[in-house]
Amino acid sequence: MKLVRQLQRTYRMEPAGSHGVHSLDDYQFVPFIWGSAQLIDHPRLSPESFVNEQTVDQHKGENLFFDCVQYINETKTGPFAEHSNQLWNISAVPSWTKVNSGLFKMYEAEVLKKFPVIQHFLFGSLLPFNPLPSSHAAADVNATIASIN
């Protein structure tokens, strides 16, 4: 992550397909999933704790979620609730289990089910891609058109 972030800063790389304040982060998503999984059943850290900058600074080296939030704190200006609204909303979730589950669902909807993103994945025997037969695709299109009318 340090190398990737250094490249982003050095070359002033623009995020691809950013959703602005409506996304978790301009550049990454998976580290939030892994980091929230690390925090499931943590005895002291609850989801509301990552909005506290001192807590984030204290735990950034031991957890991916807090590390990602620290990077946001370093690169964004203004109130956290304004520049990272989705994350701010997540801080109200009661448990890391629910946060992790919600992030998985969000990743599926925003990444895995978006053809402009998934078209760049390398498919093969471990990750097969089985397109719908053309008759199914046509039926889906017809059903969509019928629902619009």
Automatic annotation (TrEMBL):
Root EC class: isomerase
Keyword Cytoplasm: yes
Listed Pfam families: PTPA
Subcellular location: Cytoplasm
One MF annotation (Gene Ontology) recorded for this entry: protein tyrosine phosphatase activator activity
Entry keywords, A to Z: Cytoplasm, Isomerase, Rotamase
InterPro entries per the UniProt record, alphabetical: Phstyr_phstse_ac (IPR004327), PTPA_C_lid (IPR043170), PTPA_sf (IPR037218)
Protein name, per record: Serine/threonine-protein phosphatase 2A activator
Job of this protein: PPIases accelerate the folding of proteins. It catalyzes the cis-trans isomerization of proline imidic peptide bonds in oligopeptides.
Family: Belongs to the PTPA-type PPIase family.
EC number: 5.2.1.8
Catalyses which reaction(s): [protein]-peptidylproline (omega=180) = [protein]-peptidylproline (omega=0)
GO BP term (any one): mitotic spindle organization
Main location: cytoplasm
A GO CC term assigned to this protein in UniProt: nucleus
Superkingdom assignment: Eukaryota
